[in-house]
User: What shape does this take?
Amino acid sequence: MSVLRFILKKEFRQIFRDKTILAMMLVMPTVQLIILPLAMNFDVKNVNLAVVDNDHSTWSQQLIHKIGSSGYFRIVAAAPSFRQALEYIEREQADVVLEIPPGFERNLVREGEQHVGVSVDAINGTKAALGGSYLMAVIADFNRHIRLNERGKKAPGMGVNINITYSNWYNPLAEYRFYVVPAVMVLLLTLIAGFLSALNIVREKEMGTIEQINVTPIKKWQFILGKLIPFWIMGLVVFTLALTVEWVVYGIWPVGSFVLLYLFAAVYLVAMLGFGLLVSTYTDNQLQAMFVAFFFVMIFMLMSGLFTAVDSMPGWAQDIAFLTPVTHFVKVVRMVVLKGSGFADVQREFLFLVIFAVVLNSWAIWNYRKTS
Amino acid sequence: MNDKVIICEELTKRFGDFIAVNHISFDVRKGEIFGFLGANGAGKTTAMRILCGLSFPTSGKATVAGFDVYKQQESIKKNIGYMSQKFSLYENLTVVENIEFFGGVYGLSSAEIRRRSDRLVNKLGLTQEARKLVRSLPLGWKQKLAFSVAIFHDPQIVFLDEPTGGVDPITRRQFWDMIYEAAATGITVFVTTHYMDEAEYCNRITVMVDGKVEALDTPGNLKARYQAASMDEVFYQLARGAKRSAD
Assistant: This one.
């Protein structure tokens, strides 16, 4: 045990001596938590709409007015023709073009049916898709009102409406930050644990100091624990800092238990540190380690459900997502912070994280060779 | 059992087609300063790394301090000190912190470390620099410190891989004084070098050429056998036929 104590002493001395890394560990969580949730806002507002009204009737004006007052659209132009409206899209001044054909009002009254054209700039996929569907929703609503007014008395059957009343549980205002902030916390721990541990050991390889270690009777587990424990503690400090920022800046106070959150953070850190150690045993220099770690962390991040829902991925992608520790941790942090889930609800995720921690670390210890 | 601390028989190391160490045999007696000479790429470092338990041999037999190099590397490591070609103390730790760390890793107690460390710092004349980062020391001092750390835990054998590379002549001389001092306390010194004047300081030397041991004797006997005035000439005669180019 005393050997481990000497190793830890040395590791902590080195960490505290590297002021840049230390500052990064403290600045990164604060800055990321303040900036990212504001930027990562998927609520689409201010969709720029160019309107081509070929009808110039009361109803077409009503429709345009209704769209303009919905709060999601900014009518940037009223173009005389579709071709001219399209130029607004080409110049990136408009995202969506709504074309109302001539005879819009007349056809609606006579035939009870009329098509309108909606063209969407799909370069910004999210904005296009959401902008398009918002527009459909507004038009559908408009449509319903016309039908009600028209046929309300004559044909009651046609006027039956199902109104959906819905509420957002656990995030009543459906605010994106509640969804994103816990995820950014996960991102932070992943970066600290995954990268710093990998780079730290590889640096010893680069400096040649690892050889001096390998020629001592140090045990493999002593060396690995010596690397793991300091970053594990730093990770928990960062986690605490992140929770504080979350509360001070966003007013998010976990609904569930802190003990549960810390328990998961602790196990998750061990898993990700194991990942970092593993990377370091397969690489020879910091550049390689950075590249390999980055490759995996990117996949972990993008597939974890941090940004997009895992449930809506194709089956094979869900399988991959399932095999990254990040996925399980993101899920649990959201459940505990927003919903107040207890241990019973997240047992399965806990088991997965423990498996990841055990497998990755055993693999790292196995692959670390004192004699080559 | 006997006074041979290193026994090497037909030791070989291959990297693919390349035979870095080719069936070398020799033994080293307790307390002796054993020089390992050879051009760059002759296989000195590879042989030394095997003996230190850092690398597996391909074939042949070897024991160090009575332990087998195939199976008992960790026992070997308890009994040896090692100073690599590349300076490998922690540059971002101070002199005292480096000493403390390596002492601790070899299982010395804190009190023991403190006592020896004070004595060592005094001896090296590093009292002023004891709390400075190793990074800031001049190379000569770094090498002396690295050697002192390598023998800090009183190993039976210390392996030095080109310890005086890039060091000025005065410091080199002082360094060899330290080696003699260590040998006088009973530590066996196994040292590689390509400075031929240093070869003269060794009790016995081995000359390696292209992975093979070409000669093994005392400097005096070697000079007599090759009718040479200095070790420089002996080495030149032996290494002239080397096929491997210097790296």
About this structure: Strands of chain A lie at 47-53, 73-78, 96-100, 117-120.
